[in-house]
Amino acid sequence: MGEISRTLVYKTLEFENPARTPRQLWILPWAINNYPRECAAIKQRYPDDIVYAKAILKQQPQTCGDAFKVGYYVDEWGCRFENKQNGVIGEVKEPLIKTLAGIQKVRLPQECLTVNTEMVDQFCKKSSEFVLGACCPCPFERLQFLRGTENLMIDIAMQFSEFYQLAQIVHNFYLEEMHLWAKTKVDGLWFKDDWGTQRSLLISPQSWRKIFKPMYKEYIDLAHSHGKKIFMHSDGYIFDIIPDLVEMGLDAINSQIFCMSVKDIGKCFAGKITFWGEIDRQHLLPYGSTDDIQAAVQMLQHHLYRNGGVIAP
User: Fold this and answer.
1) CATH number of 5-61+96-311
2) Which of the four pLDDT bands, split at 50, 70 and 90, describes residue 131?
3) pTM: predicted TM-score of the whole model, two decimal places
């Protein structure tokens, strides 16, 4: 009998030569809506080794609409998204906090802290897969949703005291939520923020290190203090901050490594952090041949695999 999924993932994260590379396929509702048979067949043939514990809440957040359907959706923070396509997430067109004088408009979604942790623990006990918690701090993205992207970029440039107050409010809530999940029996926690354009970070590495790196360090330290692994997702070119993520002890990063140089990433970081999925979905997956995809997989194995350190998409 082969190693169970949970063991495969732990061995991969710790570079202990797993029996095979673990996998986790990320599928948006759009793909399931448009290609239900194909998605089901892939999932059946290659089941995930990483799953998420469902957040069953004792009190329901004050949301409205469906995040993945055409129309409007109001999330648990009160941010209003406009969606023009089924199966994907929409955008916030009107920020909730138009000026920093409106910080008092922030309504923390306290309902998200009413997780039925007993049911989470029961799920983890029954699962043979590696279980990630359902909470996912995203301070940069949340600040964009609250302030709007243009306003937030000005905030980061000007760094008014009110901006730091707002950022701390968001961060403190995420710490509380993550601490709740860290006390459950999940194997790992995760957080996300999309930091990259196609060629560079959205803000300077210096500003990122000053404002957001300390937040991420607290998430990572909190997870590790409870014996949990911790993962991060970020789209785009993020090469400049990967050394910081390694330094802070991040266990796994999901990023668009084909926006960067796979060879350079391997040279600098292979064996120091696990690369959590990702084959080029901009060009290779939609337009590449079977041979192209196989060559890409072999390239990832050559440059990134070091007795582990790779989770297949």
Assistant:
1) 3.20.20.210
2) very high
3) 0.95
